[in-house]
From TrEMBL, chain A:
This protein's UniProt keywords: Lyase
The protein, known as: Carbon-phosphorus lyase complex subunit PhnI
Native species: Thetidibacter halocola
One of the GO BP terms on file: organic phosphonate metabolic process
Pfam families (UniProt xref): PhnI
Automatic annotation (TrEMBL), chain B:
Signal peptide: none
Keywords, ordered alphabetically: Lyase
Gene designation per UniProt: phnG
Keyword Lyase among record annotations: yes
Lyase as UniProt keyword: yes
A Pfam family hit: PhnG
Gene Ontology terms for molecular function: lyase activity
One BP annotation, GO: organic phosphonate metabolic process
Name of the protein in its database record: Phosphonate C-P lyase system protein PhnG
InterPro entries referenced in this protein's UniProt entry, alphabetically: Phosphonate_metab_PhnG
Amino acid sequence: MYVAVKGGERAIGNAHAWLAEERRGDTAVAELSVAQIREQLTLAVNRVMAEGSLYDRDLAALAIKQARGDLIEAIFLIRAYRTTLPRLGASIPVDTAAMACDRRISATFKDLPGGQVLGPTFDYTHRLLDFKLAAEGAVPEAPLRAAESGPVPHVAGFLNREGLIEEAPQDDTPPPDLTREPLAMPADRALRLQALARADEGFTLGMAYSTQRGYARTHAFVGELRIGTVAVEMDIPELGFAIEIGEITLTECETVNQFKGSKTEPPQFTRGYGLVFGQTERKAISMALVDRALRWQELGEDDQGAPAQDAEFVLYHGDNIQATGFLEHIKLPHYVDFQSELELVRKLRREAGADAAKEAVQ
Amino acid sequence: MIDDADPNAPRKAWMGLLARAPAERLAALLDARGPRPAMTWLRTPELGSVMVRGRAGGTGAPFNLGEMTVTRCALRLPCGTVGHAYVQGRDKAKAEAAAIVDALMQTGAAEAVRRAILDPLAQEDAGRREARAARAAATKVDFFTVVRGED
């Protein structure tokens, strides 16, 4: 039962005022600008865009400032803002083969067309705190080298040529959209990929890790990981043709997984796929592993009862805004609910007490 | 990439360039030509979102990846030419400038507008891409085999 309770307006107003003051912190320290967050906390901005499911770097930076760095709160703000925007349409699917890659690596092939390009990565850093960053100073310029202009083909394409890997033939079925129709089971792969692309990074990482540790092991290799910019094109009805409306940074991960074959398919490699807004490689790799684990039915694999094979479990619990909304609501007033529980426990105790007294008499 | 067979290719190319252009730079180049042309709104700048799609496995069935913010508008010059803009982000002034340039590019002023606005934007856009590509190329691994001692 829900009962409206009045009162608390003054306390709430004062709490908000104090929150604003705490957000600002010590006024002797310069205030952070949204542009500083956008440019210098880029990976936080990317995570908020990915899980907020809205690509807008300025808005994500503003949300991080408003949320005092609480990224789930920032994602919540972006999701709420997103619902106020009219939907102008859907893009033509982005062509990741045409990506201008900042980074492109393969753990399966050393020498591949386009090469192994490390990009601005934390890999190979020593993970030692760099106290030079505590002092302000100029950054040395990154070295340049003449870039080869040639296509950077997907690694899966090489294996395809030998028929060693399952194909992903083009198909133009309009995909379901969980922002328009509530998520329902069974969820096809398009719906699962949409849910995973916006799922919580920590949850997705945990699920992916569980498959590596043996809960529905899929023997994943990172066939390819690429980060870079792609053009977004959309058909414009008033023009009668498609134009480029902007450019976004994406992280794409394709895993190559072992597959023993089934009654209808010879042994070959199978694929898991991750695609996420921004430079977000931990999330993209995790997404690819979880995508692959969720494909067990389609590939005729055994249900091992592993959490990562359970689409309902993964998809309904991976959304951090739904999760935190339900989790955090229990701290809000439940006075009446609790009153009834209290009454029940008192009644049970009275009855138990009466029974005990009876037994004592006997 | 301009496709010669497509009659809309030139317009696609300049609309894409305008969508990617930094807002302040576009406004500065447009205003450096002199006063902006008179125009009437067909659709005042409107903020919205576009659902970005990807494909499973990069090549397979499409799925909804997430949305991006987009601003669109349409306007008409006194000569009747209509300019459209669909540009990433929430900058209404940028959408207006892009639609004006789109309209002007369909008039007799096209060549002058190309030289004054599109050419510098294209050059700067290519410069930004090359600078990034060169940084990436510098991080490309050159494998070599360490020679082992022979018995």
